[in-house]
Amino acid sequence: MSSVFNKIIFSAALLAMGSLLHTPVQAQLRVEVSGVGSSQIPVAIAAFADEILAPQQITSIIKDDLNRSGYFKIIDADAVITETASVNFDEWRKRGAEALVVGSVQRLADGRFDVRYRLLDTVKSVSLSGFSVATPPTNTRLTAHKIADDIYEKLTGVPGAFATRIAYVTKAGNEYRLEVADADGDGIKVALRSNEPIISPAWSADGTKVAYVSFEAKKPVVWVQNLVTGERRIVANFKGNNSAPAWSPDGSRLAVALSRDGLTQIYTVNADGSGLQKLTSSSGIDTEPQFSADGQSVYFLSDRGGSPQIYRINASGGEAKRVTFNGSYNITPRISPDGRTLAYISRRDNKFQLYVLDLATGQEQRLSDTTKDESPSFSPNGRYIMYATESGRRGALAVVSVDGKVKQKLTVQAGDIREPTWGPFMK
């Protein structure tokens, strides 16, 4: 096994944490967007009536979400329009808008806010969608994200992912933090702090838990933490290294990489730490497991063929089959929510870059133009991939659309940020 391969697997071991905090972190993520989708839908967004009453401005959050997606051209309505107002559709068509967003905010007697919204099709002169949500002041931003999600879905046919969350690890000075934030980088909360590294965070399918590897015991140990209660549980602390946790789609089991019997191999374990089962037995090193979308298979990284490549094995065991053949160094498999696309990091011409592979056709595409990429993670709607890279000699996060046209960069003012994982849709 090459020293570089060994470094990629375990030197991500530069990250970890210690007590649950629900106070926001001061350093918010800064998002820069470049590129647009293959076609942009022109949408006019009117200011919601009385939105100044709410803690956050609903329309500005909706605009930011849709702008960040790269698939919409925002037309400023220059007007306040309620969801009950009569609309001159012809006027909006002349202004180039194919859709119009209107709404209002009302303060309720119990302190909540009634946020009302409608999405209008200006071409067909009909209402496409709309709803009313009574939300506490702390959830007005989430409500705005849900409105943006509805707009995205009604106009593209694909569910929006603005109301989802991301988790990642930051290092500032000697402190490591596992942080959770909204998909736009706002609302950062610290799940864990430590002076020892934390790596490989992974969301459970219901979005209530994160598995990760902590070095607080001076060795890699796999933990599962409930993000609601803060409760933590060790699920893998065997002899040697315990690493690379990945949840099964139903949340009942984790795939992990363990060196308890010598060379690192793939195992599965129940979410409570019981029921350990060995999945691979090779003469190489097998690591970085990832369940398929249907839970029937596990993708993993192995150097059994002489160089790091991605393989697939039945979740109950059996013969492993090689999946990647282009390039001599392919690591960190991640499967799309629909199971059709594999994302991974490939080293070519001494550059570590993000690639995707269409599993049906074998067609491969490079998505990133950076050179030190790590840790890809699909958005729950499958439209985007978040990954770690380097910007100005510091760790940063990047997001790219699966067609490679829309790119985002997320940075913090101080410290490194790495190991991203995109959370699921929340019910």
Q: How does the SSE layout of this entry go?
A:
Elements: H1 3-10, E1 30-34, E2 41-47, H2 58-69, E3 72-80, H3 89-94, E4 99-107, E5 113-121, E6 126-135, H4 140-156, E7 165-172, E8 175-182, E9 189-194, E10 198-203, E11 209-214, E12 221-226, E13 232-236, E14 242-247, E15 253-258, E16 265-270, E17 277-278, E18 286-291, E19 297-302, E20 309-314, E21 321-322, E22 330-335, E23 341-348, E24 351-358, E25 364-366, E26 374-378, E27 384-391, E28 394-401, E29 407-411, E30 416-422
Parallel strand pairs: 2-3, 2-4
Antiparallel strand pairs: 1-29, 4-5, 5-6, 7-8, 7-30, 8-9, 10-11, 11-12, 12-13, 14-15, 15-16, 16-17, 18-19, 19-20, 20-21, 22-23, 23-24, 24-25, 26-27, 27-28, 28-29
Helix pairs in contact: 2-4
Q: Would you kindly provide a written description of the structure presented here, covering whatever features stand out?
A:
By secondary structure, this protein is mainly beta. It has 2 domains: 3-31 and 162-422, TolB, C-terminal domain (Neuraminidase, 6 Propeller); 39-156, Rossmann fold (3-Layer(aba) Sandwich), CATH 3.40.50. The chain contains 4 helices and 30 strands. The strands form 7 sheets. It has a 5-stranded antiparallel sheet, with helices on one face. Strands 3-2-4-5-6 form a 5-stranded mixed sheet, covered by helices on one side. The protein has a 4-stranded antiparallel sheet with strand order 9-8-7-30, with no helix packed on it.
